[in-house]
């Protein structure tokens, strides 16, 4: 488990080590949940500003990355519900930056289709199918039941099917 | 011809279907072009999802984070709502309905597993009787812990676990008494439970633990997962059909490992 000394100001700090290792994963999760690069950057920053305090509740159960992603998901979902969301902008640039050359078109088409999913369905779909959360974990994050999470996943697949191949 | 739904095909592709349903889907897909095409699409999409790239965060974010920390900016991570806050407002009406139904059912029959559960939850002492009842119930539990009792029928109890998740665990121990004690925690507590005299079905325990307290007095107890027999206690003899750990006086089975 990474241990942070909040008063530590030397370089590279423990926080920076964690940032270098996990920033992209946190940013990608936030980008897919919020659908906005600006919101995703805000989430990324919030996660790492919150991290020194949040780590005090980390119990070393399971993988650190999974715990960090749950923290990121909570903050991203809070932003989704927030009234201070920034205007959504097309993800083209962000998606093109991340797409590999061989499957770029397929990946962009899929990411675009994901972004067109209604937010409640998209959050469940991203958390379950891409990030590998269980329905119980999603239920806790979204304050819904596990059964509701499964229903939303089913609807998300149906919507995706309709969108990709109408 | 009844075609499997997209969700069923997705569950099939994800390996979430129990063996019997899985083979039914396989049989159908073998002779149905439309469903084979749908299943191919699901598999292709799942593949593509697993290969989606990780996006790179701009380097300037680290500078902003440092500046915010230096300025004493504080961000609190939102905590999940407590179970009571989460559950009560949304399910109060449904819970009252279930309780009212259970109470009515209990009044009509001699003994009901639901009534035993209610009595236990409400803090009373459960009524134990030798006469088995035929009162089925189906409860979607929202609490993180659940305890219920299942009365035997003709001295036998069958426990069926449907579609267990990868991290769910089953713990079996021998207890005194005349009824099967079932205690579920974590994700298992929000599974669907159907019980009647001699029978208990637990649907989709995603995670968490199910503890079965098997009474010495019951003649036969059979535990199955997705129609596969895991263990059987018969006249004091224990037969385990899968790999299991013995922890003190208990048997511990990771349910995910027995899935086909």
Quick recap of the structure?
Chain A is mainly α and 166 residues long. Chain A has helices at 14-34, 37-54, 64-81, 92-98, 104-116, 119-130, 135-142, 146-164. Chain A starts with 13 loop residues before the first helix and ends with a helix.
Structure commentary:
The complex is a heterodimer of chains A (about 170) and B (about 260). Chain A has about 170 residues and is mostly helical. Chain A is built from 8 helices and no strands. In chain B, a hairpin with a 2-residue loop joins strand 6 and strand 7 (about 200-205). The longest helix of chain B is centred in the middle third of the chain and has 26 residues, at about 85-110. Chains A and B meet through helix 1, helix 2, helix 3, helix 4 and helix 5 of A and helix 1, helix 3 and helix 4 of B.
Number of DSSP helices of chain A?
8
Largest sheet descriptor of chain B = 7 strands, mixed
Number of helices of chain B: 6
How far is the N terminus from the C terminus of chain A?
47 Å
Give the mean pLDDT of chain B. 75
Beta strands of chain A, count: 0
- Going by helix content, strand content and strand pairing, the class of chain B is alpha+beta
Instruction: State the order of secondary-structure elements of chain B, H for helix, E for strand.
Output: HHHHHHEEEEEEEEEEEEE
Mean pLDDT of chain A: 81
Helix content of chain B: 25-40%
Kindly name the structural category of chain A. mainly alpha
Quaternary state of this entry equals: heterodimer
- Give the tally of β-strands of chain B: 13
Helix content of chain A: 55-70%
Determine the most extensive contact between two protein chains. A-B, 55 and 42 residues
Low-confidence segments of chain B? 81-88, 117-143
Backbone shape of chain A: globular
Principal-axis shape of chain B: extended
């Amino acid at each position: 488990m990474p241990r942070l000394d909040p008063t530590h100001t030397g370089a590279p700090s423990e926080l920076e080590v964690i940032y270098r290792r996990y920033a992209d994963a946190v940013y990608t999760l936030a980008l897919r949940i919020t659908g906005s690069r600006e919101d995703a950057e805000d989430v990324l920053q919030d996660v790492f500003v919150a991290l020194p305090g949040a780590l005090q509740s980390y119990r070393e159960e399971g993988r650190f990355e999974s715990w960090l992603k749950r923290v990121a998901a909570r903050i991203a979902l809070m932003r989704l519900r927030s009234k201070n969301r920034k205007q959504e902008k097309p993800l083209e640039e962000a998606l093109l930056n991340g797409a590999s050359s061989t499957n770029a078109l397929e990946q962009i088409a899929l990411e675009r289709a994901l972004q067109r999913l209604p937010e409640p369905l998209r959050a469940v779909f991203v958390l379950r199918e891409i990030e590998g959360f269980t329905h119980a974990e999603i239920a806790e994050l979204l304050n819904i039941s596990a059964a509701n999470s499964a229903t939303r996943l089913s609807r998300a697949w149906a919507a995706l099917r309709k969108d990709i191949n109408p | 011809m009844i075609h499997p739904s997209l969700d069923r095909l997705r569950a099939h592709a994800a390996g979430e279907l129990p063996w019997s349903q899985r083979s039914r889907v396989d049989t159908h897909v073998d002779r149905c072009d439309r469903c084979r095409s749908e299943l191919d699409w699901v598999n292709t999409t799942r593949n593509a999802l697993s290969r989606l790239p990780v996006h790179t965060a701009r380097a300037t974010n680290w500078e902003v984070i440092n500046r915010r920390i230096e300025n004493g900016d504080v961000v609190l991570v939102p905590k999940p709502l407590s179970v009571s806050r989460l559950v009560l407002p949304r399910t109060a009406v449904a819970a009252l309905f279930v309780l009212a139904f259970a109470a009515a059912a209990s009044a009509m029959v001699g003994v009901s597993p639901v009534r035993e559960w209610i009595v236990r939850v409400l803090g009373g002492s459960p009524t134990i009787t030798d006469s088995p009842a035929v009162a089925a119930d189906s409860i979607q539990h929202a609490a993180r812990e659940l305890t219920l009792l299942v009365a035997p029928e003709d001295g036998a109890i069958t426990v069926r676990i449907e579609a267990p998740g990868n991290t769910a665990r089953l713990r079996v121990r021998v207890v005194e008494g005349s009824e099967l004690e079932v205690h579920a925690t974590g994700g298992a507590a929000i599974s669907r439970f159907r019980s009647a005299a001699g029978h208990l079905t637990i649907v989709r325990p995603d995670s968490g633990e199910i503890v079965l307290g098997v009474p010495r007095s019951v003649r036969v107890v059979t535990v199955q997962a997705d129609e596969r027999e895991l263990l059987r206690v018969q006249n004091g003899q224990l037969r385990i059909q899968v790999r299991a750990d013995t922890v003190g006086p208990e048997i511990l089975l990771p349910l995910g490992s027995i899935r086909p």
